[in-house]
Write a structure and sequence with these properties.
- By secondary structure, this protein is α+β, with helices and mostly antiparallel strands.
- The longest helix is centred in the middle third of the chain and has 16 residues.
- It is elongated and about 55 Å long.
- The two termini are 25 Å apart.
Length: 200
């Protein structure tokens, strides 16, 4: 085990589904080969690669896909955005979906250079430019009908409100929308943000 790797990341990879292990292992290898100074850490329950105390990249695996992202990068393409999934590369279901090593290395080099230059994470820049998303009337009504949720909602940060508003707005079918509203109200009543599952 080198000084730049963390046994918790080994354990994470080993605990994932078989289809994801090669992708996670490969991404990890390319990150270290491209940026030898990067170290590893578990943050929000999934692996991160840290460069000069800044989050350089992250990876995660779910039931049917893996996700890879860069904190200091704008390399997400429209095609990948349509795929959904967390991170810049969309939903990666197999090694065939992975970008070439050259493309991955370019992303890593760019992210490291942005950190060297003192830049801010891409999500912070996007956050400044984003327009407010209206809260769906159905969500607002459901929250108002639950005193516990209404109390928490009133004290939520704009980012928490936006996260829930986006999630409900993104639902394609009425059934999905209604299911999400029920889940949202329950989580809000417990004081949880939309992405509470990924937090420590």
């Amino acid at each position: 085990m080198s000084e730049t790797t963390d046994p918790k990341i080994d354990a994470y990879i080993e605990s994932r589904a078989d289809f994801a292990k090669p992708m996670l292992t490969h991404f990890r290898s390319v990150v270290h080969a491209t940026c030898p100074e990067a170290t590893e850490a578990m943050k929000w329950s999934f692996p991160h690669f840290v460069y000069k105390d800044k989050n350089l990249a992250s990876m995660a695996a779910f039931k049917a896909h893996a996700s890879f992202g860069f904190w200091y990068s704008e390399d997400e393409t429209p095609e990948r955005q349509k795929q959904g999934g967390m991170g810049h590369l969309g939903r990666i279901a197999s090694m065939d979906d992975m970008p070439s090593d050259a493309e991955l290395k370019a992303m890593i080099v760019k992210a490291a250079a942005l950190i060297d230059a003192g830049g801010k994470p891409a999500w912070m820049e996007r956050k400044k430019a984003r327009e407010p998303i209206p809260v769906a009337p159905e969500l607002a009504a459901a929250i108002a009908a639950d005193p516990a949720a209404a109390k928490v909602w009133a004290g939520f940060s704009p980012s928490h409100v936006r996260d829930y508003a986006e999630w409900i707005a993104d639902a394609k079918r009425p059934e999905t929308r209604n299911k999400r509203i029920v889940e949202a109200v329950g989580w809000i009543a417990e004081g949880k943000g939309r992405h509470w599952k990924y937090q420590r």
